[in-house]
Task: inverse folding
């Protein structure tokens, strides 16, 4: 008797990724595709690709896709979801895209509680354009635009998007997960599923921040990059669920914000 232990998710096309060896974008694609398969929504999912190394995501996911301009994916996804509310809509964005040029779009989509899912890939650098400093770059981290390391007096401190967005009332689910070992990848899968579940249940905005590697621009081997992520990124970007609406599977965190009251104007 033969037992199948591994297969390509149906929501992933049979195409070889262009990502560099050891880049964890590929793992994250797979997690998203597995979640789409498990929810049985492949035929009614629409992805929104951003600009960055994952700009070609539409080649890899076997679902409908729309390309958005740099940083604008949450606005594009908002329009798609409002026009086609029965579709499962997700964005796939890097940290340069989401936390720099796209800061306004992500904050306002989260504030409005748009019923979309955001997959936020944080590799602490601009990957596609050759390794410039991002808002997520760690203090002291060398990049092409911070030779000698990021200095707080010049460039501020790393922005923690999950913590920041979880202060808003709109989001239903916000979590940060990582890809540095198999156990963490398994946890990441649960978070991605929970984010899609929030959308299916019409609970509102969901985001999973996934800590990811960029061995090429970090100047490391794939294994060194996984170790660097674990040792340097986790202390700055702690893992966990920052916001969970009651009713979603798994332990529910208390709401972090007190809802604002409606005021009557007559
Ligand atoms: C309006 C605009 N500004 C700047 C760029 C250049 N640009 C392309 S990708 C990118 C950064 C990508 O980094 P990130 O979002 O972190 O994704 P990664 O490549 O690391 O996955 C930038 C600045 C652009 N394409 N469009
Ligand atoms: S440049 Fe970095 S983020 Fe882009 S594919 Fe290569 S390793 Fe991945």
Result:
């Amino acid at each position: 008797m033969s037992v199948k232990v591994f297969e390509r998710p149906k929501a992933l096309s049979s195409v070889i990724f262009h990502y560099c060896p050891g880049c964890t974008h590929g793992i994250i694609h797979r997690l998203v595709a597995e979640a789409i398969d498990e929810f049985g929504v492949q035929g009614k999912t629409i992805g929104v690709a951003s600009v960055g190394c994952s700009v070609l995501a539409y080649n890899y996911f076997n679902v409908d896709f729309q390309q958005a301009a740099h940083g604008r994916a949450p606005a594009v996804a908002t329009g798609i979801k409002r026009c086609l509310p029965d579709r499962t809509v997700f964005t796939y964005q890097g940290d340069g895209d989401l936390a720099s040029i796209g800061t306004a779009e992500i904050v306002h989509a989260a504030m409005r509680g748009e019923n979309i899912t955001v997959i936020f890939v944080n590799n602490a650098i601009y990957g596609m354009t050759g390794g410039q400093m991002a808002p997520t770059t760690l203090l002291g981290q060398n990049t092409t635009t911070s030779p000698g390391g990021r200095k707080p007096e010049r460039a501020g401190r790393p922005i923690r998007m999950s913590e920041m967005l979880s202060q808003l009332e709109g989001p239903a689910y916000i979590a940060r997960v990582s890809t540095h070992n198999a156990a963490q990848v398994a946890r990441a899968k649960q978070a991605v599923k929970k984010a899609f579940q929030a959308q299916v249940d019409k609970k509102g905005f969901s985001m999973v921040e996934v800590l990811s590697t960029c061995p090429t621009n970090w100047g490391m081997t794939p294994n060194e990059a996984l170790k660097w992520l674990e040792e340097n990124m986790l202390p700055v970007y702690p893992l966990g669920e920052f916001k969970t609406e009651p009713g979603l599977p798994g332990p529910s965190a208390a709401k972090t914000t007190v809802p604002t009251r409606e005021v009557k104007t007559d």
Q: What stands out?
A: Residues 51-54, 70, 94-97, 101, 121, 123, 125-129, 134, 214 surround thiamine diphosphate (ligand 1) (CB under 6 Å). The radius of gyration is 18 Å.
